[in-house]
Amino acid sequence: MVSNKFLTALAVGLPAIQAAVPEIAGFTLTWSDDFVGTANSLPNTANWIIDNGTSYPGGPANWGTGEIQTYTSNVNNLKLDGNGALAITAIKNTAGAWTSARIETQRANFVAAAGGKMRIQASLNLPVVGTNGIGYWPAFWTLGAAYRGNYQNWPSIGEFDILENVNGINKVWGVMHCGTSPGGPCKEKDGLGGNRECPGTTCQGNFHKYTLEVDRSATPEAVRWFVDDTLFWQVTQDDLPADVWTQAVHEPHFILMNLAIGGEFPNNNYGSTTPLATTVSGASFQAEYIAIFSLPAAAVGLSLLSTVPTIDPAIPLANQSSESSENSATVIPGAFVVEWETDMADAPGFYQSLGLEVEHRLDLKYQLFKGASFRIVNGSNDVSNDISVLIAARPEVKSIWPVRMVTIPTAKPLYVGKTRTTTSGQFVGVDKRQTEEPDTYTPHVMTQVDKLRAEGYTGKGIRIGIVDSGVDYTHPALGGCFGEGCLVSYGWDLTGDNYFPPNSPEPDADPYDGCIGHGTHVAGIIAAQANELGFTGAAPDVTIGAYRAWGCNSLTTNDILLDAFNAAFEDGSDIISCSAGQYTGWANDPWAIAASRIAAKGVSVIVAPGNSGRSGMFLSASPATGFKVTAAGSVDNIITPLLLTACSYTVNNATGISEPFGFISGGPEFAENITLPLWSVSNKSDSANDACSPLPDSTPDLSSRIVLLRVADTSECYSSTQATNVAAKGGKYLLFYSQSNFSIATIYAYSDGIIGVGTVTPAQGATWINLLNQGSDIKIHLVDPAAADIRYEAVTNDVSGDLTSLTTAWGPTWEIVSKPQFTAPGGNILSTWPMVMGEYSVLSGTSMSTPLIAAVFALVGQARGTTDPVELRNVISSTSRARPWFDGATVHGILAPVPQQGSGVVQAYDAAHAKTIPSVSEISFNDTENLVAQHTFSIRNTGGDAVIYKLGHTKAATAYTFASGSRSASQFPNPTVDDWAELSFSTETISISAGSSAEVTVKVVPPRNVNATQLPVYSGLITIEADNGETHSIPYIGVAGSMKETPTFLEGPEHGTFLGYFNNPTAPNTTFTIPRPGTTPPGSVEYPSIQASLHFGTQMARADVVAISETGLPTTAFFDIDSIGFLSGFPEPWVVRRNYRLGFTGELADGTVVPEGTYKIVFSGLRVFGDRGKREDWDFAETVPFVIQYID
User: Where's the active site on this chain (predicted)?
Assistant: First the structure.
């Protein structure tokens, strides 16, 4: 057996590059670049042309836009950062001249097929320029392929500006150029465009997802612009002449990314010439990936505009409508966390003994973890295995891990209040309840918290440590203070206000959250005090500890998270709540190990498992994967809380009598107070196509009316078409009403003449239609949203309410441990928000269910008089309310799979008063090869009377991991099969006397009529019905197939593992002429690139370099492979399914530079439950031979 010390040492090479390119359900990835490569090198020239100078040869000067910079291929302006991102940097020299960079794809054949769709998508971070960004003009865009070599045929060839931004403004512009200039159908040179602020966080300093969709699957065809999956602009085929549309949309394009300085757009926006003398130099435009996806005509109708979260990274744990799914976790070169072997180890002495220059990061002097984190300053520029092995071999060192930078994208509220700068901004529209009145807050009703609260249980005396973004303790609903005697009474800022990895943190004593909001929302779910919106937290009398583990840039590191967890433990927290993690699926991750240790010491550790539910099974996040750690799944709220702009209306000019209503501001936003009569496009409240066609000639002049129309079915038309047709009759102001409560959303309906857009509820729209049909006159009194009150309303969720959230992460772990344990409302949750950011907001995800479950632990613990995490987890699990299987469209007559919902929705009252306690919270029968065919558990009767129990079995849906004929994990909804396990019990009834317990043995026969190669996961509930009226259950899971017989990956380009770039395999014996490692690249360089697609988890991934020609280097035998060393970052233990894109620079992981010659790469993965000493338990794939020559 290999020691843990050795395994952890293996993980610390240069990080294997993590593919940031997501999947989109139904679409095929046709081209992408995730910007993997050596730090300070240029992007891959197989993909990109690097433009130089101030124009194309023979093209318009200053690139036709008036921009003033010179584009270069210098790495100061254009480079890979070594962590999977591209940076374009604008620099001003001492003479005042600017340089920057512009790249365009080699390929110029990107086009949507007739009847199909194409999406161009990128994760981009705009330059952080503060108030000194005048003149900055970053852009991500396309040009028609016919422009190349002509350079005089713009704009007829078509241009799509997917993202433009100027002058550091927090907005994204989307623009289409076409036809002729000036003027023409696209109103050149401005083009047809719309804009909006970036959702949730600023465009600058935060990665957001920018998408262009070309849709040729319906009539009219359309081009749509999205930011973070939010539609903000579109142009349809009906908007342009047929020949113009055909030339711009049906012909192929190439893609560009650049950072310009000065020019027409920034000048016009600023109102004067740019840049200024004060414009900052050195800001960068960054890209994590650029990708093109296609959907052929035959597959149209299968896709949704919601990306599947990336498989491997760190996560914010809320669903795609509230928190970003783009994220990353990368190694900080040369930085390590070590755990000491003994208490006597000393960090300064250890550093001195290494003989290396060391930068200290953190002392980790805790009861359960004694160690330190540090960074080697004068070692290798990468995390070479020779350094890590040197450290691991020291007698003081028990374990070693790399320090990983964790990006936790900030929350994006579905609805948010506003910061009140005057006394006029109030929250209205809710009946304020006294605290002694019944609790009707729906998440509490769904979980029986209301019943415990009615009995006086409030969590008093329980301490909950929240590891998150900090808490805005100045919020009146969160106590208004920090320190002893306050609601938020203890905690720490583990990062410091200006923390930015890889720098060392600068902790301080103030865990205030005024820039992220996530932790403030979490704290309100647990313990909000009575407030003007009429709700409280589930356990308002607990004592909160706030541990700020990431700062305003949403970046942290695993050593800080280890620090935070251990600090919360040692500060006396009875419960730790954390709504963050990293997708691993393994319980052996170091963060999960730390959480497991704390849980084993008597603290309930509640962690969000993630929101990867659309990506299939085996994707729970660490540290929720830890043993004895409670993973908190999510169900959707039975209502949707709305925070609306408060307005009113009158009927038949009734004096002094007005009715309140609220609307969601859209785009463009109303910008003034307006009182106008209401006019409806249709007299039917269920119309599917209001204003999808030009309005009739009988339509009155709409310029002095507010137009009411129902959001059209997308099969009929889009909101921009509706707006265009209303504007044709003079309309300026639109109030949409949604088709259902489930679809209430912000509407963007940009069209010439439209200057105000909003959305009201379906009920409000129906009320007005009814009044208008009765002949009533309705006058709408709109208030400028900037000065309006916020109206709180709640509408029924009649689609997914009380059902398991589609985005909640599925287990089990790779060790087949059941995750999640149970669920609570996490979809559409109203809670507190930082005062400076709006005071209250609505968020969704397991981030929200986690703190509610933590509060339930507090209430049940108070009621039962114990904080024992095992007893609480067992009794909460056994009393939970299982929910039926909901596949996103249909509610089926069978329970949802246990790896999706655990035991179901927690029931606090039943758990608090249960007299029956099972000895386990769940059971795993493992897989068929390692079948544990029987389990024995005990039932304890804590009541005063004997109880007779009846054992039974309720089946849940059996779900396949893989679709038929596929080796890639199935996306949600996983295919199910009508076959289930058979259970039998040592006794079907048992009588247990008061205060006693008895054992029961359960045996399983796994389902037989299943396809084992699709790896079916079966599950259900062992039911325990008591004659005292109690009903309990124990969830179980098993795999009706072999984990070890499931390949980690398959060899060959068709399976994603080969030498080459994306879908382009490299020919055998291709020569790569590259700079010798340690020298500066002369320009663009093409390195050997290896792709490997892991379809399943692996205990260990290796990438061995094998010399085919004579090198003189020593070799190490790995079975029949003579390895001269590893690619940087390998071997890598405990790997989730993912894609690798690896470049080979000629340098091995230990720093050895290979001589010129012929080589191949052998990629291997140890199967789940495999024996590392057996070749048959490994999967292998080798590349074709390739030749390395060095530039002299």
Answer: 468 (charge relay system), 518 (charge relay system), 847 (charge relay system)
DSSP 344: T
Residues 751 and 849 in one domain: no
Structure tokens at 929: 């090869």
C-alpha 480/C-alpha 487 separation (Å) is 8
Nearest-angstrom CA–CA distance, 914 and 807: 31
Residues 45 and 68 in one domain: yes
Confidence check: pLDDT of 641 > 90:
yes
Same domain for 228 and 206?
yes
pTM of the model: 0.75
CATH number of the domain to which 152 belongs: 2.60.120.200
> Do residues 790 and 805 share a domain?
no
Are 864 and 874 in contact by the 8 Å Cβ rule? The answer is no
Is the model more confident about 5 or about 415? 415
**Where residue 979 sits, what CATH number does that domain have?**
2.60.40.10
Provide the 10 A C-beta neighbour count for residue 81.
16
In this structure, are 862 and 1003 located in the same domain? no
- Please tell me whether residue 921 adopts helix, strand or coil conformation: coil
| Co-location of 222 and 236 in the same domain | yes
CA 193 to CA 269: how far, in whole Å? 14
As a whole number of Å, the CA-based R_g of the chain is 30
Residues marked active site are found at 468, 518, 847
Indicate the number of domains in the chain.
6
Say if residue 812 is preceded by a cis peptide, omega within 30 of 0: yes
Which two tokens mark 421?
């700068």
Percentage of the chain modeled with pLDDT above 90: 61
Q: Pick from 1046, 1075, 1103: which residue ends a domain?
A: 1046
Average pLDDT over residues 708-726: 87
**Residue 583: which of 617, 632, 559 has the closest Cα?**
617
Q: Which residues pair with 918 in a beta bridge?
A: 939
Residue 140 lies in a domain: yes
Condensed to tens digits (0 to 9), the pLDDT of residues 400-412 reads 887 877 766 555 6
Tell me the C-alpha to C-alpha distance, in Å, between residue 1097 and each of 18, 163, 406, 619.
15, 36, 21, 10
Q: Is residue 532 situated within a structural domain?
A: yes
Q: State the CATH number of the domain containing residue 1122.
A: 2.60.40
3-state secondary structure of 1053: helix
Q: Are 419 and 431 in contact (CB under 8 A)?
A: no
- The residue type of 250 is H
Say if residue 752's pLDDT is above 90: no
- Contact between 215 and 301 under an 8 Å Cβ cutoff? The reply is no
CA geometry: angle 770, 740, 904, nearest 5 deg: 140
